[in-house]
Amino acid sequence: MVGKFKRLLIGRPMKSAEIEGEKLNKLKALAVLSSDALSSVAYGTEQILIVLMAAGFTALWYSVPISLGVLGLLLILILSYRQTIFAYPTGGGAYIVAKNNLGVHTGLLAGGSLLVDYILTVAVSSSAGTDAITSAFPSLHDHRVLISLTMILFLTIMNLRGITESASVLALPVYLFVVSIFVLIISGVVKYFTGGVHAAVPEMSTTVSNISLFLILKAFSSGCSALTGVEAVSNAIPNFKKPAERNAAATLVMMGTILGAMFIGISLLAYWYGIAPSEKETVVSQIANATFGRGFIYYFIQGVTALILFLAANTAYSAFPLLAFMLAKDKFMPRMFMVRGDRLGFSNGIINLGVLSALLVIVFNGDTENLIPLYALGVFIPFTLSQLGMMVRWIKLKPSGWLGRFIVNTIGMLTTLTISLIFVFTKFSQIWMVFFFLPFVIFIFIQTKRHYENTADQLRIDLARDKPLIKGNTIVVPIAGITQVVKQSLGYAKSVTDNVVAVYVGFNDEEIERMEKKWEEWDPGVRLIVLRSSYRSIIRPLIKFVDTVEWKTAETDHITVLIPQFITKHWWQHILHNQTSLLLRAYLFNRKDVVIATVPYHLNK
Amino acid sequence: MVGKFKRLLIGRPMKSAEIEGEKLNKLKALAVLSSDALSSVAYGTEQILIVLMAAGFTALWYSVPISLGVLGLLLILILSYRQTIFAYPTGGGAYIVAKNNLGVHTGLLAGGSLLVDYILTVAVSSSAGTDAITSAFPSLHDHRVLISLTMILFLTIMNLRGITESASVLALPVYLFVVSIFVLIISGVVKYFTGGVHAAVPEMSTTVSNISLFLILKAFSSGCSALTGVEAVSNAIPNFKKPAERNAAATLVMMGTILGAMFIGISLLAYWYGIAPSEKETVVSQIANATFGRGFIYYFIQGVTALILFLAANTAYSAFPLLAFMLAKDKFMPRMFMVRGDRLGFSNGIINLGVLSALLVIVFNGDTENLIPLYALGVFIPFTLSQLGMMVRWIKLKPSGWLGRFIVNTIGMLTTLTISLIFVFTKFSQIWMVFFFLPFVIFIFIQTKRHYENTADQLRIDLARDKPLIKGNTIVVPIAGITQVVKQSLGYAKSVTDNVVAVYVGFNDEEIERMEKKWEEWDPGVRLIVLRSSYRSIIRPLIKFVDTVEWKTAETDHITVLIPQFITKHWWQHILHNQTSLLLRAYLFNRKDVVIATVPYHLNK
User: Fold this and answer.
1) Which residues pair with A503 in a beta bridge?
2) 3-state class percentages of chain B: helix first, strand second, coil last, to nearest 5
3) CB contact under 8 A, B576 and A534
4) Can you tell me the distance from the alpha carbon of B168 to that of B170, in angstroms, rounded to the nearest whole number?
5) CA A280, CA A275: separation in Å to the nearest integer?
6) Mean pLDDT value of segment A538-549
7) For B462-503, how does the pLDDT look when each residue is reduced to its tens digit (9 = 90+)?
8) pLDDT tier, B121 (very low <50, low <70, confident <90, very high otherwise)
9) Are the Cβ atoms of A484 and B461 closer than 8 angstroms?
10) CA-based max dimension of chain B
11) B582 Cα to chain A: minimum distance (Å)
């Protein structure tokens, strides 16, 4: 039943060799990996305007130079990451680059930030997408958490089905979004230059008395939230069709170009149309409204905007499992993240990401706006470390033309470092927890690795000297009566050794006497030991008895506790029987060095 | 840790022989068993007045004759049940009496009604008690569910501690309630006859035009809710100190006398004071207010009233586990209800009652008033069946003077049957579900018994002919590598038999080749079989291999699958390792007739 349901949801299992067919070409990769970056257009400009609004309407013209600054930053990042892709064709995520060039702990810092960040991506994007929907249809407002969770569930199932199929589903909305935004920008620009706009516009270069450097920096760092998601491509190189690095680099440049054009277009239109940020309506919605009015095109743009925000969450579904796989391969995360599921995706990573982000949505009741700065900082820490790593790499390897590349990465590193510091100084109240949970995550990574290493040490064998050891056998069979199950268990025990002893725990004298008499009558050729329990516990006297046997024979014999057990035909019938044997097994298993064996007796009605 | 916490909550374990010290004397029994019945005074009169109010204030005088009718009914019930106690000194609950005299299915009908009813008692009483508190302190109104659940938790823990101790805690409030109500009645009567009351009183015997027989019957049946709980004593005879039946009968008569006096006292005062039912204030509160004013005595009466409603729930904690024990002894309920816990109470019954009633409170959000008619009907069905059973018994046994007793039980039976029918006709909308869930409960009882009987049939042994069967041994050891755990497991296997085979599942050719080479180098004296898995599943190829071994050797050999397993030092380290062995064990356990053995290897760091 469960198996069939699983098949229906995620499809037939696939052979390991089928993996090449699941790889991405450039256009599909653009759809799968760029939705996070591209969707930032939906809120990047707005984030800048919200901060500037604190200094009044006339300060809004600063959004144009700030947007140009963000555009410049984007250019630097794209150039810098392009170098990384070619240097690390097998996957150049911040974790790998930082670990290889700056040491394991720095790598873990980058990896930990990214891992947490991917969870935030899913939570923030799905909530933001839900907000977009509920802004358009206020009656859905009470169901925000449910809508977000539904989307997360949908994305999780899609990704469990496999990469290619989800790409097919997800490609269309991404392209529609890109086309819609370009149509909006072009129409808006045409309308502006044909004089169709009559709005009050803050004059460029006006000196605004109460604007401070702090405010401008804060607005700039807010605008940088438009750059989240740029790193997705370099993390996902192994998912590309061959030649993976060329395809990845081309995808990165395509994505950067589209993102840059859309971002500066929206920012310019927002300035020309004199748009101020509003709690009730997004900036993109205001521009669309001013350009087309509230007709079909307006609703279409709003719709694809909501959709791409959901899809942004999907980027994390590609990136999180891959990063978890790399960390697990280095033993910093549980081994289960290395297992490919039936459909060749890293199912455990996908499921963990879905569950954790769903928890965030539930805990924050769908209001994850306050997580945005944390989310942006979580991206810029690995940005910085990754580029620092590349700098170290150029100095170490010094390939031909290394100096130019070194300079590109240095500029990139200094820029992202500066932005990270701006985040810390201007938005400390929203990001302070990063200083607690990042060390905690790194601590867990290190403990995990230590555990795996300890385990390996203890399990390691000297092939030349460590050989299996042959000993005698003593078997203890706890029994509750004389039944078919007991007969079967004793038969097995006697087939193994002659040192078999049956143990019975009685609660009062009559019970014990009756048992002894019946045993004598049966005469199975096995000695019966009877224990008396005043406290109505079966397990405690049995454990004590096993202790005694261990003390007497452990040196010469393997001690086996053989538990007779019948298995009911239907699982629910199980609750009708006392679970003493399960408890006994669990106790012995965790505390004692005895072999635990079960002879199952299957009931057939 | 868990163990220590348990000790703190419920006290040290007690020996089976300590049980006599836990038995109840008459006064303690009155406290433990009568709170349900006595607390009915808090709402019995009010239930009558609410129904009569539908015909107007002038109709309220009917409450006096109706109360007298209920009093008569109480007398009949007490006499009838007194006979039951002497006839069934080992516990004469409706289940036993009906089963013995009317057949098993009728007994199950009575037992099922009572079982469900005890759960309703806890839910209704704890909610009603909470309502009393929140009426006095409206600020607590938002926390009603929490207060009810806290009370249920408290009662559950008290009862897990054991009968005597909870009796000590519970005796005082019951006596305080009885004393308070009598003080209220006496003061009220004195005030009335000294002319201190000046209220409009509906004149006795006025003909009220719009009153119907239906309404009077409905009011009467509502008043009968004051009789719930009367059966508790006859169910709990085994809990009494010896001579149990005399003590139980005396307790029953005491309880009946107190209940009758309080009920008629409150009804008369309500009439004399001209009190009309109000949504905001209970009838008892109105009488107390009219008699004493809102002073200390008033609040004291309100307080003990709330308290006794909580304690009413406690009656069910004595009755439910005992009835569940009796049903389990007859194999109609799971065996676990027969196990006495550390403190000699039937812990499973107590815990199940607590959980189920807590669920009812949560599902109904603390508004369980609508369950009251259901609850009353659930009492009158077993009342009727029990007395019908007694009638059959007198006819069968015909002891000296049986005719008088027969007549008493017949009158009792006819009365309660009539009331049950009145319930069905006047309150069908609130009790219809009883016709669905009672058959369902009885169906479950019968299925449970059938399962136990089937199991016993299949496990039964012929002592003379069924002897343990000695066969050969074949051991299959699934391995994932060459480690200390594998060495230990192979050592054990070789100690048992020479037919040992190790099985390795590889995912690709390199893996398999490496393993085969290493095995050759180690040379443990055991043959290695290598399986190849295209779908990355370890379990499926292993199961197929076991199938093959079974097919070849099951006739001559016991087949053992020996699973090497290391146990981490701390339980949480477990999640760092793949759980393949657990899955394999679970699968084999449920599907295959092979012995499953585990050689635990305990890691020490």
Assistant:
1) A478, A529
2) 70, 5, 20
3) no
4) 6
5) 13
6) 88
7) 888 888 888 889 999 999 889 888 998 999 999 999 999 999
8) confident
9) yes
10) 110
11) 12
Global model pTM greater than 0.80: no
DSSP state for residue A240 in the 8-state scheme: B
B536 interaction partners in chain A (CB closer than 8 Å): 16, 339-340
Instruction: Answer whether residue A379 shows pLDDT above 60.
Output: yes
- Structural domains present in chain A: 19-452 (1.20.1740.10), 472-602 (3.40.50.620)
Specify the DSSP element, H or E, that contains B479: strand B472-479
How far away is chain A from the Cα of B593, in angstroms, using its nearest Cα? 6
| Residue B527 DSSP symbol | E
In angstroms, the separation between the Cα of residue A490 and the nearest Cα of chain B is 6
Q: Do A15 and B490 touch (CB under 8 A)?
A: no
Q: How many C-beta atoms lie closer than 10 Å to residue B415's C-beta?
A: 21
Per-residue pLDDT tens digits for A157-207: 888 877 555 566 667 888 889 999 999 999 988 888 887 777 677 777 677
Helix (H) or strand (E) holding B225: none
Phi, psi of B361 (to 5 degrees): -60, -40
Over chain A, what is the mean pLDDT?
84
Retrieve residue B280's tokens. 């905001």
Chain A environment of B576 (Cβ under 8 Å) = 334-335, 448, 451-452
All residues of chain A having their beta carbon less than 8 Å from the beta carbon of residue B7 are: none
Give the separation between CA A483 and CA A490, rounded to whole angstroms: 11
| A233 touches A247 (CB < 8 A) | no
Q: Which string of DSSP letters, residue by residue, matches A454-486?
A: HHHHHH---TTT------EEEEEEEESS--HHH
Work out whether the CA dihedral B48, B50, B53, B54 comes out positive or negative: negative
Cα B238 to chain centroid distance, Å, stands at: 18
Of A334, A458, A603, the CB nearest to B484: A458
Q: Is the dihedral of CA A127, A128, A130, A134 positive or negative?
A: positive
Q: If you measure CA to CA, which chain B residue comes closest to A559?
A: B492
- The dihedral region occupied by A206, where left means phi > 0, alpha psi between -120 and 50, and beta the remainder, is beta
Phi and psi angles of residue B562, each rounded to the nearest 5 degrees, phi first = -105, 115
Residue pair B390/B80 in contact by the 8 Å Cβ criterion: yes
Contact residues on chain B for A16, CB-CB shorter than 8 A: 507-508, 534-536
Tokens 């697990």 locate to A328
User: Would you state the structure tokens that stand for residue A520, as one six-digit string?
Assistant: 């004598």
Contacts of A342 in chain B (CB under 8 A): 535
Chain A residue at shortest CA distance from B599: A595
Contact B16 A534 (CB under 8 A): yes
User: CA torsion angle for A425, A429, A431, A432 (degrees, to 10)?
Assistant: 90
Q: Averaged over B65-78, what is the pLDDT?
A: 89
Number of CB pairs, chain A paired with chain B, less than 8 A apart: 211
